[in-house]
From TrEMBL:
Pfam families: APH. It comes from Kitasatospora aureofaciens. Keywords: Transferase. The lineage of its organism: Bacteria, Bacillati, Actinomycetota, Actinomycetes, Kitasatosporales. Coiled coil: none annotated. SUPFAM superfamilies: Protein kinase-like (PK-like) (SSF56112). This is Phosphotransferase. Residues 48-232 form the Aminoglycoside phosphotransferase domain. Gene3D superfamilies: 3.90.1200.10.
Length: 290
């Protein structure tokens, strides 16, 4: 293992000769995550191991996000940037001590999360949306109308649903806000002091208001107090923000339906589909009523 670990970390060591790898944190066919130590303290090195354009784009977005944080610190805790090698797709950041808000790495935790952790996650995403990134940062944007049209062409929405969601888009206004893009519970680290640090910024960009809260509304379905808390935050905003939140929820639920329908039937898949279809029914009715 030591030789294998040192070999895998070679691009990191070329970038930071003081980096001493200690363990693999994860290994996939797309990337490596290696824990280690350097003069700056405990560190994590992320290496992209594929050259597929989609993953290169995501990795570049994450590097861009950490550079933006170093230039203009955001109002949410994030790991500090240590080193970057764009050419060889290497990112080295601070290793943040702590634990995930939920055991395991479920996208949608089947158990209720600690209310204090939920509040910290929601606060972080709300604060992030009010941040002003440096010029040229967080350039990724979601083309809402193109996504709505694609979903309709693929038969995921009816003509009536497509029209209702398009109308919501026009009522949501044109103001985009910075967002994490994928704030799953696995992308938060609860520090020993109870604060949360936000990690994995590969989907960072600008979205209509409420996108990150909509993600959390969906994935925290098993936490009873989470949804009322999120809806209260949204209700405090203007009508355009409420329309944007409903639209974000609807589009994310359609994506969840598409992804889960592509998965072979199983107990887990069927249980999750039942929740998604129930939520889609409710949000679709809300979208058509607004």
């Amino acid at each position: 293992m030591p030789d294998e670990l040192t070999g895998a970390a070679a691009p990191v060591i070329r970038l930071r000769p003081d980096f001493r790898p200690t363990a693999f944190l994860s290994r996939t066919d797309k990337s490596l995550l290696i824990a280690g130590d350097c003069e700056d303290g405990p560190a994590v090195a992320k290496l992209l191991t594929t050259r597929e354009p989609l993953w290169v784009e995501k990795f570049s977005a994450e590097i861009e996000a950490y550079r933006a944080f170093a230039e203009t610190p955001p109002p949410v805790p994030v790991p500090g940037l240590i080193a970057v090698d764009d050419r060889h797709h290497v990112l080295v950041i601070e290793h943040v001590p702590g634990h995930l808000p939920a055991p395991g790495r479920d996208r949608c935790p089947p158990q209720a999360l600690d209310p204090a952790h939920v509040t910290a996650m929601l606060t972080a995403m709300s604060d992030l949306s009010r941040w002003s990134p440096p010029t040229g940062a967080f350039t990724r944007t979601l083309d809402y109308l193109a996504r709505l049209d694609r979903d309709h062409r693929q038969g995921l929405t009816t003509p009536q649903e497509h029209q209702a969601l398009t109308d919501l888009f026009h009522r949501a206004g044109t103001d985009l806000v910075p967002g994490h893009g994928d704030p799953l519970p696995t992308n938060f680290v609860v520090r020993p002091d109870g604060r949360v640090t936000v990690i994995d910024w590969e989907h960072a960009g600008h979205y209509l208001p409420g996108h990150d809260l909509a993600v959390l509304w969906i994935v925290l379905a098993a936490t009873p107090k989470a949804r009322p808390q999120i809806e209260e935050l949204v209700a405090a905003g203007p009508q355009s923000v409420r329309a944007a939140f409903t639209l974000n929820r609807a589009m994310l639920l359609v994506r969840e339906l598409r992804n889960h329908r592509a998965v072979p039937p199983s107990t887990w898949r069927d249980q999750r589909m039942a929740v998604i279809e129930r939520d889609w029914h409710d949000v679709r009715a809300l979208a058509q009523a607004e």
